[in-house]
Design brief:
Elements: H1 30-51, H2 64-75, H3 79-82, H4 96-122, H5 131-152, H6 154-165, H7 185-194, H8 202-223, H9 226-238, H10 244-260, H11 263-280, H12 285-297, H13 308-317, H14 321-327, H15 329-349, H16 363-370, H17 372-385, H18 393-408, H19 415-449, H20 452-462, H21 467-482, H22 487-497, H23 499-504, H24 509-521, H25 531-540, H26 544-554, H27 557-567, H28 577-599, E1 601-602, E2 606-607, H29 615-630, H30 641-664
Antiparallel strand pairs: 1-2
Helix pairs in contact: 1-2, 1-8, 1-19, 2-4, 4-5, 5-6, 5-7, 5-19, 6-19, 8-13, 8-18, 8-19, 9-10, 9-16, 10-11, 10-12, 10-15, 11-12, 11-25, 12-25, 12-26, 13-14, 13-22, 13-24, 15-27, 15-28, 17-18, 19-22, 21-22, 21-24, 22-24, 24-27, 25-26, 28-29, 29-30
Length: 671
C-alpha cells in the first residue's frame, strides 16, 4: 500500500491464494478437468430440472431418490481425483488407483440408481433386497468412508465410521443406554443405501434441494467482481474511522460472508487486501490475522447466504431455509457488533487513527461500478423471505446477475470464464458431497436402531433435568468434537445425539439447533484446529498457533452468544418480536461493557490503564456486569429480565463510576 495520494483501488480478490495452498488438493488437467466441468454442468442441470419440474427427461419423471443418486453419480467419483489418498500421492497427475476408485464409484452409483425405484416399490431397505444390491451397498459404504477420510481427514472418518457400524452390534448389553435394535450386515447395507434416512437422508437432501443453487449464486457473485465491490464499499464507509483498517476488515468480511457462506475462502479473498493494510496502520500481525479470522467466521452465521450447515438445519427442523436465515439475523448482528467494538476499544487504547480519505475509494465511484449487485441481493432476499421460494431464489438471482454483468461490467464473461465457473463449482460440489454423503450414514445408523428417544431420556436423567447443565455439557461436547470435525459433521452428530434431549428439556427447537451450530463452528477460530486463524496467519506472516489464541480473545463474544439466545428464543425471532428487540438492545449494551473489559478501554469512559492498580479488577467487573446485562432472564433462568438488569447495575455502576473518576482525573479521553 502506497502512502501517495493516489486513491486506493481494490483489484479482483480472486487473485488470492486458492484453497489448495491451505489444503492439499489436486488440480485436474486435460481430460480429467473437462470431465469435472461436465460434472458441474450436469449437477446444475439435474438440480434445475428437478426444482423447476422442467421434465427434460421426456416420458420419465425421476423420483427424489433417483435424483439424489444421479447427483452422487456425477459428483462423488471426483472425490478420488481431487483429494489425494496421502501426502505421498502425486498432485500433478491422477494415479491408477484413484482412477480405479473413480470408475468403481461411478459404476456402483449408476447400479444403485437404476435399482432405487424398484427398492422403493418393494421396500428393499427393510427386507428382501437381492444379493447383488446388498453387495453394491457394501462397495458404496466403503467408498463413502474413504471419501469421508479424504475430504474431512482421519478425525472425521474415525468419528463417523464406528457409528455407521453401530447397528451391527447395537443389541450388546455392554452398550448400556446406547443399546438398541440390532441388524445384520445385509440389513444395514440395504438400509444405509436404499432408505431416505441414511445416505439419501437429510444432508444429501439439503445439498440437492437448496445448497447447489446457493453455491452457484455465490461463485457467480464472486466471479463477477462482487468481492472487489464489497471491499471498496467497506473502505469507503469505514476507512477513516480510528482503527479503520480493522473495521474495514470486519465490514468487508461480513458483506463477503453474507454471500459466500465459506469461512476459508472469505479469509483468502478479503484477507489478502485487509491484513496488509491493518499491519501498515499499526496492528500487530497476530492481531490482524485474528481480526480477519473472526470476521470471516461470520460467513457461516450471516444471512442471506449462510454455510451449508444452515441448509441442513432447515432439513432437520422441517422448515424453510428463509426461517433459519431470519433466526440468524440478531445473533449475527450481535456478533459483528461485538467484533466492531473490540476493534474500536483496541484502536482507542493504542491511539490508532484511520486511513487518509484521499487514499480511499469514493462511495460514489464504488456504487457507480457495482450498483447492480444491490438489485441482485434484493431479489434474492425478496424471493427468500416474501415469496418463500428458497430452492428457486438463487437461480433467478444468478440469471439476473449474469445479465446485468454482461450489460454493465467492464470485465464481461467469455467462454473461458464460463469454463472456470463450472470448474470452481465442480470442486465445491465434490468436496461437500464427500462430507455430506458420508455423514448421512450417521443419521441412518441411529434411525435404524431406534436408540435416539431412549438416549434423550438418559441424558436428561444424567443432567438431573437441569437444562443449564445439559447446555454446558452440549457446549463442551460440541467444542471437543468441533476440533476434529467439520462444522456440518459436528452439527449433524450433535443434532442426532443431543438435540432431542435439549428439546425434551423444554428449550425452543430453533434455538437448540442454532446453539449446536454455533458451538460446532467455533473450531474454526479455536486451537488446535483453527483453520480460519491458520489461513489468516499465513497471509499475515504470523505464528499460526499464536494467531489462533489471539482469535479466541478477539472473538470471545461468540462463546457467550449461544447461551443468550437459547435462554430466550426471541433473540432468534421465536416469539414476541418486541421483546426480541428489547433483549437485543440490552445484549448490545452488555457487549459494550464486555468489549471494554476485554480490551481495557471502555467507550465513554476511557483508557482503564489510567486507573492504575484498579485496572484489572475494573476490567473483570465490566466483563461480569456486561454478561449479566446481556443475559436474558426468564425461561430456564430463575431470574426475570428486570432482576438480571438490577444485578448488572449493581456490578456496573460502581465499576463505571470508579473508572470515570480515576481515568478522567488523569487526563484520558473518553471517546
Amino acid at each position: 500500500m502506497s502512502s501517495s495520494t493516489e486513491p486506493l483501488r481494490i483489484e479482483d480478490p480472486h487473485n488470492a491464494p486458492q484453497d489448495s495452498e491451505i489444503t492439499r488438493v489436486r488440480s485436474l488437467k486435460g481430460v480429467w478437468r473437462w470431465l469435472l466441468i461436465v460434472s458441474a454442468a450436469l449437477t446444475i442441470f439435474l438440480c434445475v430440472n428437478q426444482q423447476f419440474t422442467l421434465k427434460f427427461f421426456v416420458g420419465f419423471t425421476p423420483l427424489n431418490t433417483e435424483y439424489y443418486y444421479g447427483l452422487l453419480l456425477v459428483t462423488l467419483p471426483f472425490v478420488f481425483l481431487i483429494f489425494p489418498s496421502s501426502s505421498d500421492s502425486p498432485l500433478d497427475r491422477v494415479p491408477w488407483y484413484d482412477a480405479l476408485l473413480f470408475v468403481a464409484t461411478a459404476a456402483v452409483s449408476l447400479y444403485l440408481m437404476f435399482h432405487i425405484r424398484q427398492a422403493a416399490e418393494l421396500g428393499w431397505e427393510f427386507t428382501g433386497a437381492p444379493q447383488p444390491v446388498i453387495w453394491a451397498g457394501f462397495l458404496m459404504w466403503a467408498v463413502l468412508m474413504e471419501g469421508l477420510r479424504r475430504t474431512g481427514g482421519w478425525s472425521l472418518l474415525l468419528s463417523i465410521l464406528p457409528f455407521t457400524l453401530y447397528p451391527l452390534f447395537a443389541g450388546a448389553s455392554w452398550l448400556g443406554p446406547l443399546s438398541g435394535q440390532q441388524s445384520t450386515a445385509e440389513q444395514a447395507s440395504a438400509y444405509h443405501m436404499l432408505s431416505s434416512e441414511s445416505l439419501l437422508g437429510i444432508p444429501v437432501q439439503a445439498f440437492a434441494e437448496t445448497v447447489i443453487g446457493f453455491l452457484v449464486f455465490g461463485s457467480a457473485l464472486m466471479m463477477t467482481g462482487a468481492g472487489k465491490f464489497f471491499i471498496n464499499l467497506s473502505f469507503a464507509l469505514c476507512g477513516t474511522f480510528r482503527g479503520g483498517a480493522a473495521k474495514v476488515c470486519i465490514f468487508a468480511s461480513a458483506l463477503l460472508g453474507m454471500m459466500s457462506g465459506s469461512i476459508v475462502s472469505n479469509v483468502l479473498t478479503a484477507g489478502t487486501m485487509t491484513i496488509p493494510v491493518m499491519k501498515r496502520t499499526g496492528f500487530r500481525a497476530t492481531y490482524a490475522g485474528a481480526i480477519e479470522a473472526c470476521a470471516s467466521t461470520g460467513a457461516v452465521l450471516a444471512p442471506p447466504v449462510m454455510g451449508a450447515t444452515a441448509f441442513v438445519i432447515a432439513q432437520f427442523l422441517g422448515v424453510s431455509y428463509g426461517e433459519v436465515a431470519l433466526a440468524a439475523i440478531i445473533p449475527a448482528l450481535l456478533y459483528y457488533f461485538g467484533l466492531f467494538m473490540q476493534v474500536d476499544s483496541y484502536a482507542a487504547r493504542h491511539g490508532m487513527k484511520g486511513l487518509p480519505r484521499e487514499e480511499l475509494p469514493t462511495l460514489t465511484q464504488t456504487f457507480r461500478e457495482g450498483w447492480y449487485y444491490l438489485f441482485v441481493i434484493a431479489l434474492l432476499v425478496f424471493m427468500l423471505l416474501v415469496m418463500k421460494r428458497e430452492s428457486h431464489a438463487p437461480f433467478y438471482a444468478t440469471v439476473l446477475l449474469l445479465v446485468l454483468n454482461q450489460l454493465f461490467n467492464k470485465e464481461k464473461w467469455n467462454f473461458g470464464t464460463v469454463l472456470k465457473f463450472f470448474e470452481v463449482n465442480g470442486r465445491t460440489f465434490v468436496e461437500l458431497i464427500g462430507i455430506l454423503a458420508g455423514c448421512g450414514l450417521l443419521i441412518g445408523a441411529f434411525s435404524m436402531t431406534g436408540v435416539i428417544s431412549s438416549l434423550a431420556g438418559d441424558m436428561l436423567r444424567i443432567a438431573g433435568n437441569n437444562a443449564l447443565l445439559l447446555l454446558a455439557m452440549t457446549a463442551l461436547t460440541s467444542l471437543v468434537l468441533g476440533l476434529g470435525l467439520t462444522t456440518t459433521a459436528c452439527y449433524i452428530f450433535l443434532a442426532v445425539l443431543v438435540g432431542p434431549a435439549l428439546e425434551q428439556s423444554g428449550l425452543n427447537k430453533m434455538a437448540v439447533h442454532m446453539f449446536i451450530f454455533y458451538w460446532g463452528m467455533l473450531s474454526s477460530i479455536t486451537p488446535p484446529v483453527a483453520i480460519a486463524s491458520f489461513a489468516a496467519a499465513g497471509i499475515a506472516g504470523a505464528p499460526a498457533m499464536k494467531t489462533g489464541w489471539e482469535s479466541m480473545w478477539v472473538g470471545s463474544i461468540i462463546y457467550f452468544l449461544p447461551f443468550f439466545f437459547v435462554m430466550n428464543p426471541t433473540l432468534v425471532l421465536q416469539g414476541d418480536w418486541m421483546e426480541g428487540l428489547y433483549l437485543s438492545a440490552m445484549a448490545g449494551i452488555g457487549i459494550l461493557f464486555i468489549c471494554g473489559g476485554i480490551q481495557g478501554y471502555q467507550v465513554f469512559v476511557g483508557d482503564l490503564r489510567r486507573t492504575g492498580a484498579l485496572e484489572w479488577p475494573l476490567r473483570v467487573l465490566l466483563v461480569v456486569g456486561g454478561i449479566l446485562l446481556a443475559t436474558p432472564g426468564g425461561g430456564i433462568l430463575p431470574l426475570s429480565n428486570l432482576q438480571m438488569e438490577l444485578y448488572a447495575a449493581a456490578v456496573l455502576v460502581p465499576a463505571v463510576v470508579l473508572a470515570v473518576v480515576f481515568s478522567r482525573t488523569r487526563g484520558t479521553k473518553a471517546y
